[in-house]
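Record Alpha/beta hydrolase, 279 aa.
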Amino acid sequence: MTQFKLPENEYLKVGSTEFAYKKLGTEEGIPLVFIIHFRGTMENWDPLMLENIAKERPVILFDNVGVGYTNGETPSTIDTMAEDTYQFINGLGYQQVDILGFSIGGMVAQSLAIHHPDLVRKLILSGTGPAGGIGPSHPKMEEMMYKAEGSEEDAIETFLFLFYPETEKGRELGKQSLNRIFSQKTKDSTLQVRDAQLAAIAQWTNEKFDQAKIQLHNIENPTLVINGDNDIMVPTENSFMLSQNIPDAQLIIYPNAGHGHLFQHPVRFASHVNTFLNE
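=>
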């Protein structure tokens, strides 16, 4: 089977920022805007997942400020990243979109829904957590995060550890997904991106959850929270915290899956996303 190919980059100038983005999928319908994980670029989504979602709706991928092919300096707060995302979507001329945020992208998606609720029709929060949520506790986490600076082999081993369960089936599905992802041309993120995003995540995690709950209660958008049952990067308990505090939220937990549940089960994930957005 021929792998789904991403279209060429398009560019949008907003102030001093030239956002790089890709449009795929159908011509009609409300676009689904994807917000990527830590240090990720447009090419770090699993193409099999994208293909199955894009069969039913317009999809927009983009590199936020300072990441990948977008110029500028990556901000060090989640709220600023969300405001940059708003400026990008507004610059495209959309008055309403659906949002899918994965990992740090899910934190940005929450901030976007809180500060620009009219822009967001439906919200998908994948492998993420609330402000003031539960941080990672695995003793090898920091070591593996920095190991990704090495060779492609190191990067693959890092992703297998961070994103997938340490089972034979989990690693096999992880390798299949990573082979699809790594076959795509990409532009690696810089150390400035890494450090700024780490600072943003730390600030987000160190906030008071009692205060964050108030903002979560104000999210009126229909929301799908989804994760694996063994997420070591953004512990799965965070997904329960989100679903219990966003009024119109539903929760899906994949068994024997980790942070990369959406890549481990790309077709299943796409089906859940499309079903939710079509309701």
